[in-house]
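The data are passed on as follows:
___
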Amino acid sequence: MSYVVLILGMAAITWLVRTAVFVLGERLVFPPIVRTALGFVPVTVLTAIIVPMAVSPHGQGAELTWRNPQLVGALAAIAVSVLTRRPLVTIAAGLGVFFLWQGVVLH
């Protein structure tokens, strides 16, 4: 039951924030520093989701070894991203390395 309340609470907060921005529209003006900070939110959230999954895929502490296909795929994706700056190529390369590493190298 507590999960239902938690999910409903998160949904209500999300709805309120989105509705406030929609209703206030142009009247809602952020200072330049806040606008700059908001530009970093997507990258920060994505990093907060991906890094723990890559470093500790089983939730038992850091697995910083060559036997961690999530980490190897993430490192490959970082390298491709730095070289190409193309999101789709980065995702494809990271997934390709992950599946290749998991299927060929580890088995």
About this structure: The mean pLDDT is 94. The chain has five helices and no strands.
